[in-house]
Design goal:
By secondary structure, this protein is α+β, with helices and mostly antiparallel strands. It contains seven helices and seven strands; from the N terminus they run βββββααααββααα. It has two domains: about 80 residues, Beta Barrel (OB fold (Dihydrolipoamide Acetyltransferase, E2P)); about 150 residues, de novo design (two linked rop proteins) (Up-down Bundle), CATH 1.20.1440. About 40% of the residues lie in helices and about 20% in strands. Bound molecules: zinc ion. The site of zinc ion has 8 residues, from strand 7. Involved in DNA repair and RecF pathway recombination.
């Protein structure tokens, strides 16, 4: 078993669990080693010196000893920060947890993840903390992660003829968009409106680092949520615990809206 002694790495705390009487197991998304579980001795004692380093969503530079398999160890941190808004807001919190859950499902424990993906996850969570629409940031991560789950929908042009002229519709059986001439090929196509198609295409290529503001109509957001849920349940088959709460929030919004309509 290889050990990396005294190494520095960027990390974001995903979750933690009590372990025995005084200790904790802390799961951290790292830039160099993927998702690692750290054994933190004495973490539950009062006045523990690394207490703030192992709070959920703490992030910064950590140093310690990393084992390729099994538990790793933190010796210290620097430039440690908290995502204050995420910490304080249960809604932002559940979106951020969901994104970190997806990271776990996509890359697994002890598997190094490409730097580009660490940056994407970190940027997404940073943007949610800055209160850019968390539903949209999450959609972007979900769409871009499809490739990692072995489902990369072809969204550049019509799958059949390569036309870039809309209107388009999305076909699960063809794994991408069809131009109107080719809609007849799939009667079970998703029948999406053009605005939803536009955002699906945009989200597949957008660079989160370049994203400074985004406004999507509530109706389109619902369509995006529904479309991505369909793709995830039909083709990815991954379900993250934090998603349940996001779905519940969605149905509360619906209820409130119905009440408002009366
Ligand atoms: Zn076509």
């Amino acid at each position: 078993m290889a050990t990396h002694q005294g190494v520095d790495f960027q990390g974001i705390v995903i979750s933690r669990n009590d372990y025995k009487e005084r200790d904790m197991l802390v799961k951290i998304l790292t830039d160099k080693f993927g998702i690692k579980t750290f054994f933190v001795r004495g973490a539950r004692k009062r006045g523990f010196k690394l207490a703030s380093a192992i709070l959920p969503f703490s992030h910064g530079v950590y140093f310690g000893n990393i084992n390729d398999q099994g538990l790793s160890f933190i010796n210290g941190t620097r430039e440690l920060e908290q995502y204050q808004q995420i910490y304080a807001d249960i809604k932002l919190n559940s979106y951020a947890s969901y994104i970190l859950g997806l990271a776990g499902a996509a890359f697994g424990n002890d598997e190094p993840l490409p730097k580009v993906w660490f940056d994407k996850f970190a940027t997404a969570i940073g943007l949610i903390n800055e209160e850019l629409d968390p539903a949209i940031i999450t959609n972007i991560i979900e769409i871009q992660l499809l490739e990692r789950f072995g489902v990369k929908p072809f969204l550049e042009s019509c799958v059949i003829c390569g036309s870039t002229q809309g209107p388009f519709d999305f076909s699960e059986s063809y794994g991408g968009i069809l131009c109107q001439q080719h809609w007849y090929l799939d009667i079970h196509r998703m029948h999406l409106d053009q605005r939803t198609i536009y955002y699906l295409r945009l989200f597949s290529v957008v660079d989160l680092k370049q994203l400074h503001s985004i406004k999507v109509k509530p109706e389109t957001k619902q369509h995006l949520r529904h479309t991505i849920d369909t793709l995830y349940s039909d083709e990815v088959g991954v379900y993250i615990k934090a998603k349940k709460f996001i779905d519940q929030m969605g149905s509360w919004d619906q209820l409130l809206k119905k009440d408002g309509d009366r």
